[in-house]
Amino acid sequence: MTSNQALALLGGLTPSQFMKRHWQKKPLLVRNAIADFKPCIGRSELVALAAQEGVESRLIVDSPKGWRMKHGPLGKRSLPPFAQKKWTFLVQGVDLHHDGAHALLQQFRFVPDARLDDVMISYASDGGGVGPHFDSYDVFLLQAHGQRRWRIGRQKDLSLVPGLPLKILQNFEAEEEFVLNPGDMLYLPPKYAHDGIAEGECMTWSIGFRSPQQGELARELLLGLADEAFEDLGDAVYRDPRQPAVDHPAAIPADLGVFARQVVDKALKNPQLMDSLLGEYLTEPKSSVWFAPSEVPPDLSLGVRLDRGSKMMYDQQQLFINGESFKVGGQDARLLRQLADERGLSAASCRKLSPSAQEAVLDWLSAAWLLPLEVPI
Ligand code: SIN
Ligand code: CO
Asked: Which of 103, 310, 337, 342 has the maximal Cβ count within 10 Å?
């Protein structure tokens, strides 16, 4: 896929056109985004996934007594019968558990990996949905099975119904309405109000994104900077040979304030460290992901691919994998960036890596961050 290739997935737009015209700006309805789309996960498989420990799931029921929500794991007996109307269950991060969902997510890598989040799948009985709401992030809503009626609008009034277990808009005003069939897809930018109601049993796949929140990112980076600063700046102490005698001993000396600002400035003046912390933060695996270290001695003879749960990204100087950073250059940088972009590296390319880069790749294989390639590339 290149950014200038027209895609049926985007209604004939190229990724560049889509990003310019729609991304974070306005909705796009694509009929037949994936022709003959047949979901590779059926109802019973999704029910089984929702029952699993370590898989994030929710049950939402629109009952005569009002909205009810239950967090998973959802044992079979916690789900109402499918003949009962107006309920839905949603499973987050299906791409981490299922190759087909992971493969679908790859089609959306015209958006940087740093922004891509997961595939969520919902299954609803007739009339089911999560109510009129808005999300803080962009989303592609791909109809997978049955039909869903979407009502959408640029909502100004974002006030929510108080006291509910889920976020429901108080005064939702729809401006447009579409019924989606399997393979149809609707893109919505953040904060665009929407309400999707199942018409008969219905499965919808949501390709979701993430975006660092200012406060959270600042805290993460500053915590990392704080640890480094403690190591780097050392134990040189504040000195005040010119401190005059004082009549107000409780007053903090102004020079001590200057000293404090200087040490914080010093701690912040390390752009490389900031970049390392950012890459490490962005590639931190999701909390539900764990890797079962391999028992067989690692080897590169088949080539390697990233495990579904592994995150690998890079910047100008460094390479990041699952929360760790590595400084690389030359041919190693080129090949390992290829591994990150293509999520796989052939045996021939592995052989071209320097001995130290090969050692790192073998370590990642042992940790099961990488797996041997089954289909050679
Ligand atoms: C759903 O699939 O029911 C909800 C998806 C969404 O509205 O974001
Ligand atoms: Co939504």
From this structure: 310
Which run of H or E residues covers position 88?
strand 87-91
Rounded to an integer, what distance in angstroms lies between the CA atom of residue 267 and that of residue 263? Answer: 6
- Do 33 and 134 belong to one domain? yes
Contacts of 92 (CB under 8 A, 6+ apart): 55, 56, 57, 118, 120
Can you tell me the distance from the alpha carbon of 62 to that of 130, in angstroms, rounded to the nearest whole number? 8
pTM of the model: 0.93
In angstroms, rounded to a whole number, what is the distance separating the alpha carbons of residues 215 and 212? 9
Expressed as residue numbers, the domain containing 259 is: 214-269
Ligand 1, atom nearest to 133 Cα: 7
> 36-46, pLDDT tens digit by residue?
999 999 999 99
Mean pLDDT of the 67-96 span: 96
pLDDT beyond 80 at 111: yes
For the chain, the 3-state helix, strand and coil shares in percent, each to the nearest 5, are 30, 25, 45
Pocket test for ligand 1, best of 46, 59, 61, 130 (most atoms within 8 A of CB): 130
Please give the pLDDT value at position 267.
Answer: 86
Closest ligand 1 atom to residue 129 Cα is 3
Q: Give me the pLDDT at residue 376, please.
A: 56
Percent of the chain with pLDDT over 70: 99
Q: How many domains does the chain have?
A: 2
Q: How far apart are CA 298 and CA 170, in angstroms?
A: 56
List the CATH number of the domain containing 32: 2.60.120.650
Q: Which residue's alpha carbon is nearest to atom 3 within ligand 1?
A: 129
